Every structure is written in structure tokens, then in C-alpha cells.
Amino acid sequence: MPPNKQKGQQGLQKIRKGRPMDRAGLITLEQARAAGLSFDEPEPRACPHCGAALDPLGAALAGKVAWVSAAPCPCEGAAREREAEARRRAALAAKDEAARREKALLRAGIPRRYWAAEADRPEFAEYIASFAGNGGAGLYIHGGVGAGKTHAASAMARLFAEAGYDVAFTTAKGMLERVKATFDEGGTEAAVARYAKCDVLVLDDLGKEDATEWSVGTVFSVLDARYEDMRPTIVTSNYAPGALADRLARRGERVTAEAIASRISQTCRPVYLGGRDRRRRG
Ligand SMILES: [Zn+2]
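The line above is the sequence of Cell division protein ZapE; the predicted C-alpha cells follow.
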């Protein structure tokens, strides 16, 4: 027996073993006869590759069998066609997955430059591993310019977005600008809610934004809402934890600045990334 014929026969056995009532409930002619179901004689179907007659498969509809399909042919040509179809489906699925990922990362606002960023320090791996049960704990990543804070925060934002969490990645300045942009046309509440209510907020470069009464108050209201709802926030800053309040209070908003620093120290574990913190203290 030629080897491909043998292979074909093995394939046929595999298909036969799967019976009865396999293929999502479809039934064969034999089964329809054995069950005494009524049916019209099926149209003969031939494999387009080898010409072999194919067993019809039917579905019982209101007591009568409708012939809807045929058993796959075990020949090489049909097998190749099925493999090509499986590859085509896999390629489509991969494309869908890539599109889903792109949509999630765009919605999260993660800059494209960081879409391949890795969170490659043990503190971050630990944080990610314990994330689901950590009760809303966040991180305060601080360090000098060029220490890789944005890179690390983006990497975590990416992982959470890819895992299906609703993530918002923004600079503190960008968040305030987007909220401010809604003042004229309305929608301020929704803009604040986007940051206050998302599953994970990554607030990049806290301390770089302006320190007006409004901006300090807005940052506080977002962080406070997240604190109350136990939603995690990942903050990056050039300022060490002990220097943040002074920085935010530089235009006199001492009480709110202290409240922000307090919320952060209550919920965010500090991670120092090296470089030189501006006005490092504590
Ligand atoms: Zn065939």
C-alpha cells in the first residue's frame, strides 16, 4: 500500500472513531436510518480533490433530517486544504489579537514608543505578580531624569492593558490639560472620571505640572477618589517621596499638597530608580 494511502486510511479511522453524534450533533445516514428519522435522500457529494463519495451529515429539524454537510475526506488534497484553512484562521485570529492589543494600548494612552517596554526589575515583577489581590496598592517610582521611570511605568501600563484592565496612562500635566479642555464644551466630570475610575491610573511625571490651586486640587480629587475606591495608581516623579509635598506646595497650596503626598504614601510603595532626585529628601 503506498504510504499516502495508508495515511489516508489512518485518518479515516480517526474520523470514524469519533462517532456517533459527533461533529456538533450532526448525524450520518446510518444513524438517521437506525433512528427511524424521516429524510430525503441526500444529494451525492464528491471530494473535489480525489472524487471519493463523502458521507452526508445531517441535522434533525422538526423530526426530519436536513443534509447540511459531509464528512471530511481523508485524502491528501482535502487534508492540505483543511490545513491551509486552519492556517488562514490562525492568521486571522493573530490579526484580531494584534488589533485588540493596539486598541487597548491606544485607549490606555500609552505612547507607541513604549509598546515593547519591559518592566525588568524585581520590584515590578513582584508588584505585577501580587497585583490582583493587593487591595489597590500602587507604586511611587522616583528617580532622576533618564532613570527609566516612564519606561517602567509604561511597561506596567502595557501589561495591565494587555491583560484586559482599563488603564489610563498620562502625564500629570496631560491629565490636567485634558480636564481643562472640557471647561468650555462640558464633559469635565466625565474627563475626571476617566482618571478617577479606571482600573489602573499611571500618572507620569507628577510635580512637573503647574501648582495652582485648581491643578493641585484636581490631582488630589483624582487620587482621593482612587484611594476611597481602592483603585491602584502608579505614579512617577522626579521628586523623592519626602520632597513631593514641598514641590506641590510651591505656590502656596500647602494643605492640599500635604494631602496628596499623604494619599500617595498610604497607597504607593516607593521604588527608587537611581539617578539624582531633584531636591531629594527622606
Ligand atoms: Zn478526497
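Note on the example: The CA atoms of residues 53 and 210 lie 78 Å apart. The mean pLDDT is 89.
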